[in-house]
Design a protein that fits this description.
The complex is a heterotrimer of chains A (380), B (291) and C (326).
Chain A lengths: L1 H15 L9 E3 L2 E3 L6 H20 L7 E3 L2 E3 L4 H12 L6 E2 L4 H14 L3 E3 L14 E3 L4 H16 L3 E7 L2 H16 L3 E8 L7 H10 L3 E5 L2 H14 L5 E4 L5 H7 L7 E4 L8 H14 L5 H20 L4 H8 L3 E2 L11 E3 L5 E3 L1 E7 L2 E8 L5
Parallel strand pairs in A: 1-3, 2-4, 5-6, 6-7, 8-9, 8-10, 10-11, 11-12
Antiparallel strand pairs in A: 12-16, 13-14, 14-15, 16-17
Chain B lengths: L1 H31 L6 H17 L4 H29 L3 H22 L15 E4 L2 E4 H23 L1 H11 L1 H6 L4 H27 L5 H16 L4 H21 L7 H13 L14
Antiparallel strand pairs in B: 1-2
Chain C lengths: L2 H16 L6 H26 L7 H17 L4 H23 L4 H21 L1 H4 L5 E2 L5 E2 L2 E2 L3 H24 L1 H11 L1 H6 L4 H27 L1 E2 L6 H14 L6 H15 L7 H15 L3 H12 L7 H7 L5
Antiparallel strand pairs in C: 1-4, 2-3
Classes of the chains: A alpha/beta (380), B mainly alpha (291), C mainly alpha (326).
Amino acid sequence: MFRVALFTPLVVAGISLTTPAFSQSTVYIPAILELSGAGAVSGTNFRDGMLLAIDEINAKGGILGRKIETPLLDTQSDAGTSRAQVQKVLDNKPYVILGPVFSGSVLVDMMLTQQAEVPEIVGGEAAAITQKGNPYVFRTSFGQQFSMPKIANYMRDGIKAKTVSVLWVNNDFGKGGRDNFIKEMGARDIKVVSDISTESGQADFSADVVKLKAANADAIFVYLNEEESARFLREARKQGINKPLIGETTLLGQKVIDLAGGAANGVRGHVGLTIDAPIPAVQEFAEKFKKRFNYACDHNGIKGYTAVYFIKHVTEKIGKFDSKAFAVAAHGITITPKDEPGILMEATWDKNGDIDRISFLGEVVDGKQKIVETLPKLGK
Amino acid sequence: MATFIQLLVSGLATGAIYALIAVGFTLVWQTSQTINFAQGEFVMLPAFFVLAATNAGAPFWLATFIGIALSVLVLGILFKFIVVDPMLKYGVLPLVISTIALSLFLKEGVKDFYSSQAQPFPALVPAIDIHVFEAVISTQSLAVLAVAVITVVALNLLLNGTRVGRQMQATAQNVTLARILGVPVRRMVLYTFLINAVLVAIASILVSPIYLAKFTNGETLGMAAFIAAIIGGFNQVRGAVLGGVVLGVLDNLSAAYISSQYRGAFPLIILVAVILLRPQGLLGRVEERSV
Amino acid sequence: MTRFGMLVFVVAVAAGVTGPFLLRPFGLYLISMWAVLTIAAIGLNLTLGYAGQVSLAQGAFVGIGAYTAALLTQAGCPFVIAFVAAGSLCFIIGWILGYPALRVQHHYLAFVTLAFTTLVFLVLRNEEWLTGGIYGINGIQRPNVFGWSTAKAINFYFFSFGVLAALAFATWWMLRSPWGRAFVALRENPIRAASLGVDTRRYTLMAFAIGSSLGGMSGALYAPLVQFIEPNSFSLGLSFSLLLMVIIGGSGYFFGPFVGTLIAVLLPEWLRVTEGYYLIVYAAAVMAMMAFCPAGLLGLIERSARALGGRRRPETTQALVGGADS
């Protein structure tokens, strides 16, 4: 019993120890990310892209003369922990919040940031995030409600498929993509003959390849995370699948190509954000990233990098550190690389916080991603 | 029919991996009552030793030896003396908790000190696809199968054919009696740990080209090891092998024919059924209760 | 209880009641989480510490309770009913699970409960029509208890603290009863208990079912606390965390769960200075603690108190309120 008493002052001390002091010469933009657990890869990529941008901006004097201060908080890929971290940073009155990447965590954090009227630049791709009428949420990558129609159009016009199989990973990323994809297929009268879920971290895809072969659709849409994509491609090549394998960003990424070896050749699909885009600014960013962090980043790294420059540009536009004014100014804004090189590609934000940007159709040829076509922005 | 054969063949290949991991797990449990919840991470780690050695400039064959040696040192000797021995006197539960903590420690250690990204791992055996009947199997999978079989045969020879092996068996069956009979019990237990370390290192080097080296590899492999060991039967090395193979095949068949969303459920249901109906496993002997 | 212990207890309760006014919303959220998880830890302590059964299913019961409460309250049911429903459902499921499972030896029970937890996770994830699937259930409202809104952080804290106090008292009272003494007898010496005519299986099953029920009630509070639940939160990770909380606090000690949960909730904050390596430090700390003091923190304190020649309590109350020596 006295042991409990011993701990109470420690509790109070422990909690007050967690309140850092922020000076007037810095701006508090905390990052809440998945740094451990299932989302560690996405979270660490986002973090590193973000850190690269922050260091670049701070080296040039910061935003409006104030350096960016970004403590990192780990959600441990758990929504409850994520909520606690958001609560913690909100207690210290942040300007803007970066992250998280996991859509589940984003949804629960959004409730709090909306109440506190603090903008949040997130990495989550679930459609639901921008459909809740929250004027304070923004993202720097396509929501699944935008990327899936592009894939669906490609299926219908490019591949001219009448039947399709879907292979997806059973987490909120994969399920969200699969749900949106099936909806788009229905709208285009393409029949989904096979709907196969896989587990995150799965290593053995032989059963899934067997089922896909049996279903014999005109095309196969593959929506998995990186390593699983590589393992799947190898198994598919091994068992001799000859129908087109179509993917969305991940499947055609250089990382998957490296891990899958020759098995990735012939894969096609839509690519939203990629370091392989034939745009000099993006290439330069990829070089800088690789040099500093010693690995090739995925699309989450670009999300993090452009998010920081997005904040910088909007803040300079409104001329002050006002969270509410930020949200108002950010809706409808268009940022070009000419005005802000860090944004890498021209982007427009709509009234829901979704981004509109050019994207690409690509194909893996001889171990490299080749851009076959550039798709214009949806708006104008 | 072609699909069934393919599933069977692929299941055998995966099952061989599970078998290799389950064997070491079983041995350690038998001789020292250590339920090593970190067994999965034990299989994940040696690959990173090899990768680190390769990064330091060693050619692959040398890196492999270094990996196995480090594995024996860290996962065999250090594990026994630092983690297991201090806790044996407290009973099974603290040791279980400790191995759970150890698995977390190893996993986070690799993630923080090496990389959170998956790493390609060079293959000892080149990946060529062989067509068997109407199915395809990769030479890498055949290699795993072959190594698993050789390992089990070798272990059986060791345990039954040599004096040291029989002493190890005696230790596993009844520690007190073995001690009375003059068996150097502590040394026997150490040997089991060393054997496990070698087995997991071999498994790691064989599996990583297929699975890619990643810090989360331990999670699924560890679970598979437990299930395989229990299904097959704890008191026999053969049991672990059978359990692994059964698990691999069953997993594939259930994913293909029943439900892909519940594919993880079937091995677990079999596990529960075995524990409730036949706790000694398919091949195991019934354990006596000690009072 | 000794007079000193009584005083200390009163001080602790007073701190629990007045301290929160010093805290900001984040701090309040943390201690509300402490209160909610302690309920689950108390349940696990009954199963593990008193009945001696290793259960890895507690996380699943918290999940079942959370989903039950969330679905019922979102369908319009008053919170009190949802709370009772969550507890009862988990009691029944615990009983059904325990009936066959407790026949097997300890380490096998760990695996059976491990399988159960994963199976529950799969059901929660796959049955989208019922549970919302992988997307979880969002926007859970904080309950209105008898007209008092718990939407504010501090109100919810007092609500959960109140529930914790009530359940802790109920558990304490149960352990003091003849029934409870039989529980303790089970742990000390199951064979002797059996020879004295105690139906060990019945009591173990009861302990397991009550422990599961407490897990369910904890889940019923977890849902409105976080206001978002998804299957991933209730998988093996939570079961392991709860196990660690009970063990670190001291399994078998009545106040062990309180201490252990406090440590588990606060440690990430204290270890923040290690900048992201805190999981490694946490894991190493747990291993070290297991090597030096597996009776947990309360065991350590008791040992050092005795070593320093502290007052010895009479054996009977010791066994009831404190814990057994390992």
